[in-house]
UniProtKB/TrEMBL annotation:
GO terms for cellular component: extracellular matrix. This is Metalloendoproteinase 4-MMP. It comes from Cicer arietinum. Ca(2+) 3 binds at D224, G225, D244, E247. Binds 2 Zn(2+) ions per subunit. Zn(2+) 2 binds at C127, H270, H274, H280, M288. The lineage of its organism: Eukaryota, Viridiplantae, Streptophyta, Embryophyta, Tracheophyta. Ca(2+) 1 binds at E247. The keyword Amino-acid biosynthesis does not apply. Belongs to the peptidase M10A family. Matrix metalloproteinases (MMPs) subfamily. Zn(2+) 1 binds at H217, D219, H232, H242. Ca(2+) 2 binds at D207. Residues 148-315 form the Peptidase metallopeptidase domain.
Length: 359
């Protein structure tokens, strides 16, 4: 009898352990409809109009879908039409393949349809670097490089200098604050690879040239106003690092209540990854994921980011993965509590225990 009781006890404790052990990913929100953040400020980014294509699938014909196809073409998912001068408004098999590829790259459910997850991601702000310039080399890894795997080639120890364009800055954030933000962002990458970064006042000779630009600024990648594309940077050893001056850049959300505020530090950290040679990752939590929502801060390098950059430059001798794992665990737990996941996860085992001991 006692043996039977202990089997039951073990079984229930196993159930409880499984619930408690479940990774603390943020609760998955399946929106009823697509939330689109728009702004009354003048801008050319019309991605929010793409929300009208919600639920479109192969065989659909929706007026204006050619514009959405241009988006897929721009970010490397759909090649230009061969037989006609322009894209059509038909959801054909070519476009379905592009949607499938996009969903895979962005870590979305792979349905081939313009479901709410996919449309929400399409309309959210992102980095201007194309996803097609990157190439994955390993199926179990999610980070990527630029084609040809370029990296900075300097003597060891490697020091790269960075400078701010004296002519292309913003006046909504002080230069002192901008410098502090970038110093922190560079330090994050420097802590995991044997590369250090030093600010220089000699902008013209800096390895990494940082500036804020409006619209067409001469490199063939015009910015589009508030939201849409936030920034872009070039692969090694180019060093150009451009931010869209039209964004509502923020360094502290407590002092900026704009719905379209974009965290400068998160974007700076992401673009430094490109400057070093990383492409976009399909891991949503990674700094190198291409999208960043307004009022979201994402500055801590994740394992995927670290593995990617270390495969280019090697490891900083002072870096250990265990410290990174500890900080990820801590942030995951914090995230779990924030998203309300804890209530269900902790209360269910409690109910089971009460039922068991009460019977
Ligand atoms: Zn990017
Ligand atoms: Zn540019």
């Amino acid at each position: 009898m006692f043996r039977l009781f202990s089997y039951y006890l073990n079984f229930w404790f196993l159930c409880v352990a499984l619930f408690l052990w479940r990774p603390c990913f943020p609760a998955r929100i399946i929106p009823e409809s697509v939330t689109v953040i728009t702004t009354t400020e003048k801008h050319n980014a019309t991605w929010h109009d793409f929300s009208k294509f919600l639920h479109a699938e192969r065989g659909s014909h929706v007026s204006g879908m050619a514009e959405l196809k241009k988006f897929f073409n721009r970010f490397g998912y759909l090649s230009a039409p061969e037989t006609t001068p322009n894209f059509t408004d038909n959801f054909d098999s070519n476009f379905e393949s592009a949607v499938l590829l996009y969903q895979k790259q962005l870590g979305l459910p792979i349905t081939g349809k313009l479901d709410s997850d996919t449309i929400s991601t399409i309309v959210s702000p992102r980095c201007g670097v194309s996803d097609s310039t990157t190439k994955r080399i390993h199926v179990t890894r999610h980070f990527a490089y630029f084609n040809g795997k370029p990296r900075w080639l300097r003597g060891s120890p490697m020091t790269l200098t960075y400078g701010f364009s004296p002519y292309n800055m913003i006046d909504t954030i002080s230069l002192t604050e901008i410098r502090t933000v970038f110093e922190r962002s560079f330090t994050r990458w420097a802590s995991v690879i044997p590369v250090s970064f030093r600010e220089t006042e000699r902008y013209e000779s800096a390895d990494i040239k940082i500036g804020f630009y409006i619209g067409d600024h001469g490199d063939g990648e015009p910015f589009d106003g508030v939201l849409g594309v936030l920034a872009h940077a070039f692969s090694p050893q180019n060093g150009r690092f451009h931010l869209d001056a039209a964004e509502n850049w923020a360094v502290d959300f407590d002092h900026d209540d704009s719905r379209v505020a974009i965290d400068l530090e998160s974007v700076a950290t992401h673009e430094i990854g490109h400057v070093l040679g990383l492409g976009h990752s399909s891991v949503k939590e990674a700094v190198m994921y291409p999208n960043l929502s307004p009022r979201r801060k994402k500055v801590d390098l994740k394992i995927d980011d670290v593995e990617g950059v270390q495969s280019l430059y090697g490891s900083n001798p002072n870096f250990t993965f265990s410290s990174l794992l500890q900080s990820e665990d801590a942030s995951n737990v914090a995230l779990g509590f924030q998203t309300g996941f804890s209530k269900w996860t902790f209360s269910l085992p409690l109910v089971l225990l009460i039922l068991f001991f009460g019977s």
